[in-house]
Amino acid sequence: MSAPAKLHLRLPATSANLGPGFDALGLAMALYLTIDATEAASFHIKATGRNADLCGTLKDNLILRTYAEVLTSSGRESIPYLHLDIHNEIPLGMGCGSSAAALLAGVLLANHFGNLNWTTQQILEEACRREGHPDNVAACYLGGMTASAVSGNQVITATCGQDLTWNLLLALPSASLATEKARALLPPSYTRADAVANIQATALLVAAFAKNRPDLLRVAMQDRIHQPYRMEACPLLPLLLPLNGQPGVLGVALSGAGPSVLVIAENASPGLPEIIRQAAGDPSLEILQTTIAGGAVLAGS
User: Fold this and answer.
1) Mean pLDDT over residues 86-98, rounded?
2) How far is CA 171 from CA 174, 246, 265, in A?
3) β-strands 82-88, 145-151: how paired?
4) Pairwise CA distance, residues 121 & 132, whole Å
5) Distance separating alpha carbons of residues 114 and 112, to the nearest angstrom
6) DSSP string, 70-118
7) d(Cα 63, Cα 136) in Å, to the nearest integer?
8) What are the structural domains, with CATH classification, of the chain?
9) Using 50, 70 and 90 to split pLDDT, how confident is the model at 174?
10) What is the pTM of this model?
11) CB 266 within 8 A of CB 7
């Protein structure tokens, strides 16, 4: 059997939760993890772009570890070595879906070079199982704004908003935050009032993306389930939340588990980054400006 053709992957960054949609909503953003993979005599990575030193290391590399684990668990006795050309635009450890993109990349590489012939649903469910929750993985794979749920062992997804032209601004603090630490800050239970408020806001948020209703975002992105408990570990959040609904700003929320903050604007206002920096009290605050992205791109040759 001839070796599989090389594989080209382009996987978008994602922002999960979007305020009230805890572990249920995700948004694909036009910042990408791009990989060109070919079989090789040994594992090797050439990395460029953001955090190239971390992306290029072989030790405990999440992409390669996932790739090997999927093939081993699928009964493959030999694991093809790969050379990966990686270009990364996704901030690591900042709540922008870098781990979901890496996990999905590992599963896609295993499916391709291991000739697993998995369906889209099998790929999605394997990556979601490894991530532990479906919001980031679903948005990374499918694009747009994705709502997802787990029923038994099955992941159910629906996506919308891929054609929206809203502008996204990511405010990135200097220090990262581990998802495990961010989850440890959450309480074991919530009041009925908080649960109902989040259900209402989440329903409104899905409608905003499905119906192109930016006017709904100011209320729809409000949260009482996770953001209030992550303020101390994500100090940008309380500084930028007051921008919600101000001129030029449609909505503000923690990006994923933080510490980055996502600001949604209807237009690409050249003055908005400076307004965000002023609110944060940090003239050197890094802000990435992007848009809503489509899903994963796969191409063999």
Assistant:
1) 96
2) 10, 17, 13
3) unpaired
4) 16
5) 6
6) HHHHTT-SS---EEEEEEE-SPTTSSSSHHHHHHHHHHHHHHHHTT---
7) 16
8) 7-160+293-300 (3.30.230.10), 167-291 (3.30.70.890)
9) confident
10) 0.94
11) no
